[in-house]
Design goal:
It is built from three helices and 35 strands. It is mostly beta strands. It folds into three domains: 5-32 and 205-353, Immunoglobulin-like, CATH 2.60.40; 77-197, Sandwich (Immunoglobulin-like), CATH 2.60.40.420; 378-507, Cupredoxins -  blue copper proteins (Immunoglobulin-like), CATH 2.60.40.420. It is globular, with a radius of gyration of 21 Å.
Amino acid sequence: MDRRRFIVLSTAGSVAVLTGCGGGTGGMAMPATGTAPPPAIPPVSSPPPATPVSPLTAGQPLADLARLSNTSSTPGVFEATLVAQRATKSMLSGTTTEFWSYNNDVPGPLIDVFEGDTVRIRLDNRLSQETTVHWHGLPVPPAQDGNPMDPIAPGASRTYEFTLPVGSAGTYWYHPHPHEMTAEQVFRGMAGLLIVRSRTDPVPAAIEEKLLVISDLRLAADGTIPPNTPMDWQTGREGNYVLVNGQHQPVLTINPGQSQRWRVLNATNARYLRLALTGHTLTLIGTDGGLLGSPVPGLDEILLAPAERVEVIVTANLSSAASAVLRSLPYDRGGMGMMGTSSTTIPLLTVNYTSAATAAVALPGALNSIADLGVATTNKRLVFSSGMGMGGMGGGMMSFLIDGKSFDPSRVDLTSRVNEIEQWTIENRSSMDHPFHLHGTQFQVVSRTRSGVALAEPFLAWRDTVNVAAFEAVVFKVVQRQLGRRMYHCHILEHESQGMMGVLDVVA
């Protein structure tokens, strides 16, 4: 990788501005504890998935996301129904592909609400499996969180209801969370974007907003979506296509001089997105839980681990009739000796310039007020590890553990007190990156340590997912505001399904 300035939202443990070579961690890095890395686990032999005989159609205009309609006439109330069901789409010429979907939409319909709204959404499960809806990153009560201990049976329904507090504006998403079935339901199409807006958004309305949901798709030659292989259960599933809003390499238009606000979601099971736009720099303005205190301009790259989101400003600084490509560059996420390095640059989206110039719109210097959570009174430490297992899902040979234990929904692994400031350390002793997700709240990353060197975060940001690179330790501060049981887990969904998950009980 060139020695350029870029933003790492994942391997750095949080938002960190880096200069120099980087991106890859892999199995050759030394652990933060100073001990030698364990020997690589030998790869598991499995046949590669069938490759389609023809490519997907590319070059279509970027589609707007379908929207979930509000059926309520009461101000401040959002009511709607989501239906988990099978849906058929034409992807490859001469074939149809069966997805699992919300409301026949892949990705799921956009949920667009405001701070202060009461949200009431009914989920009808027409699948043959249990499912839930997890409101990823939102500060909802535990009983409304859609966790694995609260499944909705096939043919059953339930209504989720919660109120969005002031200060929760940000870019979120929703997806299933049934134990051992999450990975399949997501890779078959069940994921959607959820935006919580502020009525006093400081970003000028003249800056056009674009929504980008990036997902993986693996197709066999007959147009079907094949199940996971044993290798997928160990490294995490990646597809043979990467889609934006359900499209293959769509086209977005921009006017010379125009600024656009892109909200970007990594909705893949396991793929890391090292995003770069040819000929342009990016201005970071927001992370998972909302806007930063001030813009971070001049970024050549942004790395998104699975489940992470960003808001960026793209300014059209090229001339009329130019074009640029949004790409995902190679990234080494480790792999326990099983080819964790992506060596391919993947074009995601083409940006075409029009001939009509637009006057630039300035961003304010201050976007949000983010106060440090304060001095922690309690410390917690979790250790991620992996090694030879006892079979696991799909016949895999790997085990994925937190504190040496596999997930047990009946066991409470950690206890926190409501409204108490805590400092968590997540240590990754494996040779594979693991994005860590904590339910119920946002947190502030403090530092990361690798090879015995601790680096502080350069600015405050709200996060609900943070990558912990191989042999790295990440420290963050957090406060849980609501009583009840929460989940924490690796957001490589195959690892979550294999047991890399725990239960936090928040008590008075």
